[in-house]
Amino acid sequence: MSQDAVQIISRGPRAVAEAAAEAIDANPLLEGATYSILEEDEDHNVWRIDAFPTTTEEADGLVEALAAYPEMKTVVEKLADADWLAVALSGLPPVRAGRFFVFGAHDKGRAPTNAVNLRIEAGAAFGTGHHGTTVGCLIAYNDLIKSRRFDKVLDVGAGTGVLAIAAALTGSKLAVGTDIDGPSVRISNENAKLNKSTARFVHASGLGHQLVAKAAPYDLVFANILAPPLVALSQDIKTALKPGGFAILSGLLRTQERRVLAAYLSKGFRLHRRIHRDAWATLVLRRA
């Protein structure tokens, strides 16, 4: 496959599309692959996976993974030379999630006065607010803060920083985010400045960074990542939380929900709430 920018589009029944997405998540060679899964045609049960590989090897791996599901019809389309991220974002409407209104520069004039407005520029990072996992996290957090206050918040895998920034703008005295991707950390810190937020973001793998460890235990931990690292970090997230603290977990498909939930229940967490949006799940857990 050439190194030209491509988009991989695969369509099929929901169950098969979810299984294919789970296979992509489970493949260590595709750990950083960017893709989405959504319902395209409800009447005909057509679900669609869109993937945007950044390397030839990643593109080949995605095509190979999807080929294992014959019911999925997959095509690879070459993208013209353009700033596709900017083009895509310009067509995305603002998102309302409870009291939060997430928008980009192109919708700056549409921010309502009766909302917590979050201007988020994605750059090369994940988390514009449109993805079902990000919306699920914002809805879960919005409902929690109706009756609780979270003074210290940690956002694991912060992406654009939208979740930690939301916490900082709604009363959290300390909001810290981490990401294993250097550009994401830069983008999230830029977004914090855009929103005049006190949220801080650091480049880290796991929860061992000095800034993160020093501020523990936290009242709330966000982790909007993938199912395998959610399972792997279950003990670390428990340790980072104070007793009675909450964890909002997402980045997982509904088909992966049982596996992730089992890992946390075994660590003494209790299920507080679950939110489903499209094929994605968000779990709200409380440390006993």
In short:
The chain is α/β, with parallel strands linked by helices. It is built from 10 helices and 14 strands.
Highlighted features:
288 residues; 14 strands; SAM-dependent_MTases_sf; methyltransferase; Ribosomal_L11_MeTrfase_PrmA; Alpha-Beta Plaits; alpha/beta; protein methyltransferase activity; 4-stranded antiparallel β-sheet
Itemize the secondary structure elements and their pairings.
Blueprint: E1 6-12, H1 14-26, E2 35-41, E3 46-51, H2 56-67, E4 73-78, H3 84-90, E5 95-97, E6 100-103, E7 116-119, H4 132-144, E8 152-156, H5 162-168, E9 174-179, H6 182-194, E10 200-203, H7 210-215, E11 218-224, H8 227-232, H9 234-240, E12 241-253, H10 257-265, E13 269-277, E14 280-287
Helix pairs in contact: 4-5
Structure description:
- With 288 residues, the chain is α/β, with parallel strands linked by helices.
- The protein has two domains: 6-79, Alpha-Beta Plaits (2-Layer Sandwich), CATH 3.30.70; 84-287, Rossmann fold (3-Layer(aba) Sandwich), CATH 3.40.50.150.
- 32% of the residues lie in helices and 31% in strands.
- It has helices at 14-26, 56-67, 84-90, 132-144, 162-168, 182-194, 210-215, 227-232, 234-240, 257-265; strands at residues 6-12, 35-41, 46-51, 73-78, 95-97, 100-103, 116-119, 152-156, 174-179, 200-203, 218-224, 241-253, 269-277, 280-287.
- A hairpin with a 2-residue loop joins strand 5 (95-97) and strand 6.
- The chain is globular and about 50 Å long.
- The model is unreliable at 82-91 (pLDDT under 50).
- It is found in: Cytoplasm.
- S-adenosyl-L-methionine binds at residues 134, 157, 179, 224.
